[in-house]
Every structure is written in C-alpha cells, then in structure tokens.
Amino acid sequence: MISVNDFKTGLTIEVDGDIWRVVDFQHVKPGKGAAFVRSKLKNLRTGAVQEKTFRAGEKVAKAQIDNRKMQYLYESGDSHVFMDLDTYEQIEIPTEQIKDELKYMLENMEVTVIMYGSEILGVDLPNTVVLEVAETEPNIKGDTSSGGSKPATMETGVTVNVPFFVNQGDKLIINTTDGSYVSRA
C-alpha cells in the first residue's frame, strides 16, 4: 500500500480493480476543511484518462508493473509480434490494443512492453523516433524555414506538420507523445 501523499508522476496504482498510471497530481490544502489530493489517472487497460480526488493520507495499492524491453518484429493478421530481447520469447499483441503506437513503430524497433503479471497492458515508445518522409509537397522557392509548415506523410502513414524546407526522402526526428516535428535526423 502507498499513501496518496507519496504520488509521483508515472507511478502505477490499483484502484477499483483497474490499473492506473498517475499522469498528474496536486496536493490541495483548502482554508477550511481537510486536505486532499487531486489527481489525473490514465487507465492502462482502456487508455481512458480520469480525474480522481483522494483524501490526504488515504492508502491505495501499488501495482507491480513489469516493463520488458522487446523488439517489434512484424504484423501477423490482426495482431503484431514482439520478441523479448533477453529470453527470445515471442508474444502477440492485438492491433486494436496498440493502434496509436503503431503510427510511430517500424519493424525491428526496440520498445518497452508494459505487463501486469501475464496480462499485456500496452507498449511504451521512445520519446522520439526517426522516420522517413514518404510524401510531401515540393519546396517552393521563397519559402523560409522560419515561416509556416506543410503536411508530410511519414513511412508509417502518420501525417506530421513540417517546415517548408523538408523534402520527400528526408529522415526526421518525430516526438511520439504529440506527433510533432523535432528536427532533421
């Protein structure tokens, strides 16, 4: 058990039979009444984000999450195959469970698979990935790097707004948390 006063961003807890990750939290001491902790929690099974308020000092169960380094191998029907880098054991994760992460994943990429016991909760991507521009409008003379942006479709199919100087075939660093352009690779 862990006290809500000890919340940290990224902590995984078990509340109401579900596994939650603390996304954000705030300790509140009102002028009148008891202190409480306002938190924003992400359900690791469904991906839903919910705000929940706890009384100060309240205890919740800490969830033992296993983060395993795995390599994304290939798509197999309506699931995707991953290999554990330590044991070489292969597991399949349904496409529906990781559809948002697939926009940034290439074959042979290393990711972290989040597990609770033997249950697979999802995939954690690196903060940034390097992707090649598959399609974008050609550069127009007079466009500058400081002004505006244009859409570019990356090799995985995700569309990212990029500066005008980016051309088809360029390798770019993309932020996986918000899908934004970072820089050229």
From TrEMBL:
Superkingdom, taxonomy of origin: Bacteria
Keyword flag Zinc-finger: no
Keywords: Cytoplasm, Elongation factor, Protein biosynthesis
GO molecular function: translation elongation factor activity
PROSITE patterns per the UniProt record, alphabetical: EFP
Pathway annotation: Protein biosynthesis; polypeptide chain elongation
Cell compartment(s), UniProt: Cytoplasm
InterPro entries named among the record's database cross-references: Elong-fact-P_C (IPR015365), NA-bd_OB-fold (IPR012340), Rib_uL2_dom2 (IPR014722), Transl_elong_fac_P/YeiP (IPR020599), Transl_elong_KOW-like (IPR013185), Transl_elong_P/YeiP_cen (IPR001059), Transl_elong_P/YeiP_CS (IPR013852), Transl_elongation_fac_P (IPR011768)
Gene3D superfamilies assigned: 2.30.30.30, Nucleic acid-binding proteins
UniProt similarity note: Belongs to the elongation factor P family.
NCBIfam families per record: efp (TIGR00038), PRK00529.1 (NF001810)
Protein name: Elongation factor P
Species for this entry: Enterococcus canintestini
Upper taxonomic lineage: Bacteria, Bacillati, Bacillota, Bacilli, Lactobacillales
